[in-house]
Amino acid sequence: MLESIKKIAVLTSGGDASGMNATIRAVTRYARYKSLEVIGFYEGFKGLIKDNFTILTEENVGGIIDRGGTILYSARSQEFKTEEGMAKAIDNLKKHQIDGLIVIGGDGSLRGVHDLHARGVRAVGIPATIDNDIAGTDYSIGFDTALNVIISLLSKIRDTAFSHDRLFVIEVMGKNSGLIAINAGLACAADYILIPEIEVDLVKIANSIRNHRKGKRHTLIIVAEGAAKASDVAASIKLLVGHEVRVSVLGHIQRGGFPSALDRLLAAQFGKKSVDLLLKGESDCMTAIQGKKIVSVPIEFIINNRKDISKELFQLAHILS
Amino acid sequence: MLESIKKIAVLTSGGDASGMNATIRAVTRYARYKSLEVIGFYEGFKGLIKDNFTILTEENVGGIIDRGGTILYSARSQEFKTEEGMAKAIDNLKKHQIDGLIVIGGDGSLRGVHDLHARGVRAVGIPATIDNDIAGTDYSIGFDTALNVIISLLSKIRDTAFSHDRLFVIEVMGKNSGLIAINAGLACAADYILIPEIEVDLVKIANSIRNHRKGKRHTLIIVAEGAAKASDVAASIKLLVGHEVRVSVLGHIQRGGFPSALDRLLAAQFGKKSVDLLLKGESDCMTAIQGKKIVSVPIEFIINNRKDISKELFQLAHILS
Amino acid sequence: MLESIKKIAVLTSGGDASGMNATIRAVTRYARYKSLEVIGFYEGFKGLIKDNFTILTEENVGGIIDRGGTILYSARSQEFKTEEGMAKAIDNLKKHQIDGLIVIGGDGSLRGVHDLHARGVRAVGIPATIDNDIAGTDYSIGFDTALNVIISLLSKIRDTAFSHDRLFVIEVMGKNSGLIAINAGLACAADYILIPEIEVDLVKIANSIRNHRKGKRHTLIIVAEGAAKASDVAASIKLLVGHEVRVSVLGHIQRGGFPSALDRLLAAQFGKKSVDLLLKGESDCMTAIQGKKIVSVPIEFIINNRKDISKELFQLAHILS
Amino acid sequence: MLESIKKIAVLTSGGDASGMNATIRAVTRYARYKSLEVIGFYEGFKGLIKDNFTILTEENVGGIIDRGGTILYSARSQEFKTEEGMAKAIDNLKKHQIDGLIVIGGDGSLRGVHDLHARGVRAVGIPATIDNDIAGTDYSIGFDTALNVIISLLSKIRDTAFSHDRLFVIEVMGKNSGLIAINAGLACAADYILIPEIEVDLVKIANSIRNHRKGKRHTLIIVAEGAAKASDVAASIKLLVGHEVRVSVLGHIQRGGFPSALDRLLAAQFGKKSVDLLLKGESDCMTAIQGKKIVSVPIEFIINNRKDISKELFQLAHILS
Q1: What's the pTM?
Q2: DSSP-assigned beta bridge partners for residue A285
Q3: Considering only CA atoms, which of C240, C271, C277 is closest in space to residue C122?
Q4: Do C51 and C181 fall within a single domain?
């Protein structure tokens, strides 16, 4: 079976994450080193269905390691969730004689790996999402860059908050997970962190802010978008504390930009591992980092497990603030 | 009269701007070099009324050149607009035997200089506002840093827009002036720029976007906050173009952060000039840069003139996009 | 024994590393939360001998999380290596009734922990060195920031190398260890990496460069300072390849600056752990991260073990280049 | 004559400067807007002689505004200085029916414009050199970016200098001109600045350092490469002051990277102006900014005049330090 691998495909799917390009580069270069042909489908599963692709070579993945976003583009595909769409995708993989598919993306994209595998496609996933909410891996690509972007932005906000004696509510990404909020909050010395996993007690926070404000010129409250809307939090705090509150929704800025060192190192190792997995005949699994080890995790594990937040980090952030 | 200058005061007022600290440092060090005593009032005119101050020395302005915001804090003061408040301010200046006051701030702060002068206080202003909407000077402190922050953020947004084939509406500062929007838009290759000075024709923009989108994977529309709300623009464009539109409101992030080289060079020169003006017995004027020259402009000129946007730059931005 | 802990001291020693301030903040705030008194000795063991110290409070460690370097300063102390110096240090600890000492620093500093423990002082270490060459911990504080600084600098060098069709030899830190060189080299797509652990074959590299240069406009060679001098490598490559070679010695720039998210997260967790260790009566050990776990490692282990480089990463860097 | 302009060529020459790509983009897009054809010669005059070129369109200059270096590459050409080389260059311009040439580069490149004009070629220059040593224009492209890079690096060096109580000698670019050294030195609060234009008195500096060091934990000395070698300065200061001195040679890092807002605004305006000049039949001139005005300056003026440093800024830097 192993000798059958001659040609692989790669695609990026779901929300873009910084380091996806570095991953495409690593997959391509390592696969070429292993004498494989590589094609890249554009716009994730949408391009796979539409047969929108490009040939990837050592040369045309040069110079992309520094760039945010993804040169293969990304998109969400409703059609891929239908049997018809899935069939078209598989037809295209067959047409191109693809022996293995590497999917770079988040939660939903990895389910796509599972679905394709169930229909006979050899596929492996690489976790890439700034939310870092995928079970089985300490890090997904893009998380570390997003944290670094957020702390640099919060440093700017602290400058202005400090100058004007202001309360700020800053909304960060995380629809279902407080991971970004907790890590960013701890890293940037936020005063309060609101996450979906822990019920918010605004009255308690408001009381604490009132008692805390003596001698303090800035109060930063970080809200994961899944916990509450920053503007709602700000309105409540204003009423409860009687002090003006400013809002900053970081939004898409968190996604992009120059990838961090850690995300590049992960990209290199995940890229290599994903090709090695295909070469060994593996499928229906995801590359992961556990401790310092690069391992393989069954997609089933990811589907059936939820990545928990660290309550210790959450508490520590509040102790140190 | 000139020999009477022994002690000066400095304050920062209005919205904080990056480079204010570098200006405080320059004022203090140059004044000390000229053997003057220097005190800094906290929180602008509010602190002047409340007599909230600190002594500034060569040493305690060390290490602040790199920092955004203002170590003297800033605030808005309603009381300063009353005769009673003004009287308290003047009393405090007399009590401390202040021979000259340097006000670092924007439009409203400079009017304060004028009002104090009218009541016998020797006062000069230094233009510092990220809006750069003060007549008589090519640059005010904080504008160049804000532009640099904006282009670095827009570069991140372009990464994600490009990856997802998206339209973005980005709201930047500028309540009455499109200066930030035009300059940032030209510098970061925005596709459309909406400013308060020029009536917005969304239908025309929508038509242009439709025709333009072939082969283009990102469309960036920059809106000055004074022209329209980004969310309203996005809603209209979505209806007119039939393509999803994302919104990013940059907000307070634009204010803060590590000051740019240009803002530091201005800070040094404006700081020196403002002290020299006081030493020469000048008052009711503002330091300014015109071309490469550091000059003095009467506050009256600033009050009576409006800084125009450059229509040429506005057009050029659209030609190059 | 445990109830005896009422007052602790902290110091930073050896080469400064970004994140030391965040660590001082975490130690202080967490210790205060545990109702301990905290003093900080200036300039590492030198200040401990000279009794040069400051009281650390929640307030005076505010605002330092963003700053590189160390507010407690660092220095090398020859005197500390003598019995006389050691005796003075211990006297000062006794005089201040210090129940436990936290030493933030690298290899040599951690040996100081061991030596003090041998003389009856309860002491724990926190690994902080950009070299990351301390056994028993995946990361030491400062390493991740240094990597991020290096990749941003190398991105600039690649711009100019690419424009001018140039070979560059870039010297990075690492006297005894190629860890920075390998990780930075992999993260920034260097073409060749020279490290102290693996014998350098310049002829082979030169041959490879000659064959490789067709269609390539930049060649980046990273040299750990312990492997060779960049200028020597450049001179040899120039002779062997017959193409001009430029040199860049990154030097001290690698140390400083805004700490990365990862270094701040480590700082928070190591800070807490070190205080908890002292409270539990532990001594002669170092906080460490292994996988995602914060653990304690005996100093003896650190002294007797050498942290190996990852040959896999080294090879992968060359495969992907 | 004016209607004859149908096709223009553009090239980048000399040391690369950040903003060259933004300039290529502006020239191309504005020329296309004016219905001109545009080709770009690779590697400056070398490519012009070798007929190494590419067609430039609106599309293929997309996405380059953010990138340092030059997509047209740059090189030095000895051949261009010969009559034979010059003849080949002119032949190639004729072969392609080029009606006007735009040269983006520094001093030497602008002389090339003059030489080509003397042989009947219609040519205009755009000043682009990080040295900013071209007479007749306040700014050349790349200078502002270089200053911003330098101040961010010096901020890192100050962190480590401050932590270790160190003297640093930092070498910046500037073979014949102290412009970078003065502006960077003033912007980053350097203590001493050594430039080629003013004789260096190391003994005086050493005395001042000795007196100054009380209560000061870092001393930064900036040296323009044309004034002295940093290592020589460091050796002398060490002997004279009796305190260890560290050296940092910033080198090529100063050239590259994400262009600043100001350099992009200049690029847009210089690009437009250069095309307009060709369309008006002008030649043998350079675009320039004087004050806020974009003007044209005869190349002869540039050749015959030297851009002076500002002694006022030089003194101010020392007063404020």
Answers
A1: 0.96
A2: A124, A298
A3: C277
A4: no
pLDDT of residue C214: 65
Q: Does A153 touch chain B (CB under 8 A)?
A: yes
Q: Show which residues of B are catalytic.
A: 131
Q: What is the ipTM of this complex?
A: 0.95
Residue A121 included in any domain = yes
Quote the number of domains for chain B. 2
CATH, residue C236 = 3.40.50.460
Its domain, for residue B157, covers 144-256
Structure tokens at A32: 């070429």
The pLDDT value recorded for residue B215 is: 65
If you measure CA to CA, which chain D residue comes closest to C158?
D256
Q: Which residues in chain C are closer than 8 Å to A260, comparing Cβ atoms? A: 148, 260-261
Name the residue type at position A43.
E
CATH assignment at residue D49: 3.40.50.450
Chain A stretch 52-71, residues whose beta carbon is closer than 8 A to a beta carbon of chain C: 59, 63, 65-66
Mean pLDDT in residue range D13-22: 96
Classify strands D166-172 and D245-249 as parallel, antiparallel or unpaired. Answer: parallel
Q: Which of D16, D107, D115, D131 is catalytic?
A: D131
C72 and C113 assigned to the same domain: yes
Confidence of residue C24 (pLDDT cuts 50, 70, 90): very high
Residues of chain D with pLDDT > 70, as a percent, come to 98
With contacts defined as CB-CB under 8 Å, which chain C residues touch A59?
215
What is the pLDDT, as a whole number, of residue D43? 96
Burial pattern D59-68, b for ≥16 Cβ within 10 A else e, equals eebbbbbbbb
Beta strands D218-224 and C166-172 are: unpaired
Write out residues in chain B with pLDDT < 50, as ranges.
Answer: 1
- Residue A258: list chain C partners with CB under 8 A: 152, 155
D44-61 pLDDT, tens per residue?
999 999 999 999 999 999
Our CA-based measurement puts residue B3 at a distance from the nearest CA of chain A, in whole angstroms, of 35
Q: Are residues D43 and D102 in the same domain?
A: yes
The answer to whether residue C285 sits within a structural domain is yes
